[in-house]
Amino acid sequence: MRPPFPPPPERSAEIRRRFADEARSERPDLSALCLLVGAQADGELDETGIDAAQIELDRLAGQLPFRPGGPRSWAVSLRELLGDRCGFRGAPADYQRLESSLLHEVLRRRRGLPILLSVVWMEVARRAGAPVYGVALPGHFVVGFGPTEEQVLADPFDGGRVLSGGDAELLVAGATGSSLDPSMLSPADPLDVVQRILNNVRAWAAARPERSDVALWAVELSLLLPSHPARLRYERAQLFVQRGDFVQGAVELDAYAEVVAAVDEPAAARVRQQAHAARAMLN
């Protein structure tokens, strides 16, 4: 298998405990959660590396002008620093790399998926006092500055290009074929951002069956978030079976069947049959 490789079990358990604690805190820290995702993916990311990534975000924030002005001025200042001077941006090839979903690697490579580049923009801008937030457009994550009536959007994947209303319409139309709805411009909750990052990791792993290890930890971190789809439990059970842990997979399938039975008994029966089949593989 290709790197990065997950950490040993003891380190992994500690990362997951901290991830769960942070996700359930009163004000979850987006950069901390993203770096814990990175530590779960990359066994070489130790506490020194996590601290170094936070220090780099602080350093970048220190290079921004002091209160440059309104939302557009903030967007332009971020583009000039992160996009123009530092070279943060994305390319189609970044979708093929797991590192593009890991904050510490995005800070190192200055390349990543739209949502991770947006995390860099948000965390640098937030440290400098900007009115910044993520905007989860369908199929493409961007950042917003300022209140709704003065909102300015920027696309970190395109080097921080400041978007017009027409640009946002084109992004949505290209991703969904539909028009832009004002509700799509609402600030994204930090935990929703983390869930979307983990969804991207799961999608990357789903296309690479040899990396079921990545799919499993991404599902298990998603299950630690306060709100998550119940079907993730079914996905985890299937991954256990895929990885040859038939006993654990069967236990998980039976547990999921109990949840499903309350609303769809025929579906629960099918899941129980899958659990039976998993146990039969032990013979």
From TrEMBL:
Transmembrane segments: none annotated. Residues 55-199 form the Protein SirB1 N-terminal domain. Belongs to the UPF0162 family. This is Transglutaminase-like domain-containing protein. It comes from Streptomyces doebereineriae. The lineage of its organism: Bacteria, Bacillati, Actinomycetota, Actinomycetes, Kitasatosporales.
